[in-house]
Amino acid sequence: MMLSLKEAADRLLAAKSLILTAHVHPDGDAVGSSLALAAALKQLGKSVRIIIDDDLPSGLKVLPGFDRIERPTEGQSIQVDLLVVLDTEPDRTGNAMQGITAPVLNIDHHVTNEGADNLDFYVDGDRAATAEIMYQLLEFLPVTLTRDIAMPLYTGLATDTGFFRFSNTTPFTMRAAAKMLECGVKPNEISESLEARPYEEVIGYAKVIQTIERFADGHAAGIFLDKEARENLPGTDGLVGSVRVIEGVDVAIVMKWSEDNAYRVSLRSKGVDVSRIAASFGGGGHVRAAGCTLRMSFADAKSSLQTAITAALQSEEQA
Amino acid sequence: MMLSLKEAADRLLAAKSLILTAHVHPDGDAVGSSLALAAALKQLGKSVRIIIDDDLPSGLKVLPGFDRIERPTEGQSIQVDLLVVLDTEPDRTGNAMQGITAPVLNIDHHVTNEGADNLDFYVDGDRAATAEIMYQLLEFLPVTLTRDIAMPLYTGLATDTGFFRFSNTTPFTMRAAAKMLECGVKPNEISESLEARPYEEVIGYAKVIQTIERFADGHAAGIFLDKEARENLPGTDGLVGSVRVIEGVDVAIVMKWSEDNAYRVSLRSKGVDVSRIAASFGGGGHVRAAGCTLRMSFADAKSSLQTAITAALQSEEQA
Predict the structure, then answer these.
(1) I need a labelling partner for B310 at 20 to 30 A (CA). Which of A55, B65, B69, B114 fits?
(2) What's the whole-model pTM score?
């Protein structure tokens, strides 16, 4: 059932013990929203755990509470009053929800999240980040905005808006961030931590950037990393940003080996709806930032993607 | 004479004809502050020209009025009521002020600008950008904040704060930017324009990034471009950012050939005061972002810089 924000807050207030979870491949918003909500609920004296079924980006380790985020354990059996799924639909949480007996509350800002009959949800696709919804939610919770809440909230806002550069950034986002700075958040501390890269990664990125391929008459460009190329590169976070800045490029992608015959794809756009391209491969996301996984050979994945993107750009042109 | 902001506004209001200028190597704040003030003064019916003695970054071409910015002409002779020098001391304006007969009003946010007895000045080193001072100034001018004013103001704020990531970003900065978004500024339009790089430049950057040298026990790193390397690279804007993100690096630099036996240096820091290092070579700037030009051979410039930076890092450590 679609709830109002007030009703969602009431569900949270009514619960004494809660588990929070978020999507696999967690980003600053998934982790930030979880940590912020956990800090708020702890301030209210509630028992709260965060369980996420994936490695966490190391750049987020400056966030208070980061070390207390758990991974699901094999055969876990947990009884709590409420299970809160943040920044995604429940089916993108890996094994985090396994063995947890609790009603589900789903809070998300992804337009592609249509909710479901069997769970309570609050989805607002107009919000830049789930962290922005968390910020609005605070209005309905009797908590003080402390640095422990503000730092992860700020991080969620900052990462989902590309540090306030993307089109989803609104005056509300900027003013929310202003509040966070007033609570002692240091933007340079967050940005330096998020952006810090080992020397080897910087050099590795520089190497693969030289392999950027342009297609669709230069309106799209991508980096395609097979198993070997992927294994030689420590990370790929933010790599797609280096493709995105190329003049004339509307759709930027990074396709990388994730396991045998499975390639994880990040799509970024300046106009074309890449969430539709991602959805056609079983993924999802936003109009200008989406992701999907292609389960096929490297060559097939590459050509399928290029074909789909070229077609999307052409139909855009005709529209 | 140091003026109050109100007095600075009164000087502007009293003038009927004005020339605005800013520093050579103009950035988003120099150009943005000039365009914003020009748009405000034009709204008040004044005759305003902007004269800057340098090429302008092409990423700023989306700003309204960009095409009307002039360069000084040989032997120019101009009589106006007021000459406004923005975002720098008057001696860093190249030949822009030559042949202009007018009292000078200097408005700047660089702490290193100490003003002078023979001119009226308003300097506030606590402001993130001169554009932020322009925004405060609007309170004393009977103008409406239009998109023509808001776009360049936003650009000045965004560029001098590294898109709201640097330590100079305050709640005031964020709320000022929120106002600009309300006036129709699109953050993605500005950021995409500022960040757009020709394919050749992206590839060129990737090549020179592989030449990054670490020194001072890994606390500093730099790219050193001699004449040939510089000439093979279309631009160097933002290149220092790629050095800055390396883990453990406090001081990041790009040193590039600018003319025979002259090397232009950009310094960025996460802690050490690089404005002092820049000042020791006759340059200036901020604690965390500064610049200077070294007039010597490539080898001497490189070793002088490395020595000065290593010494600054060591004295920091001891402090």
Answers:
(1) B114
(2) 0.89
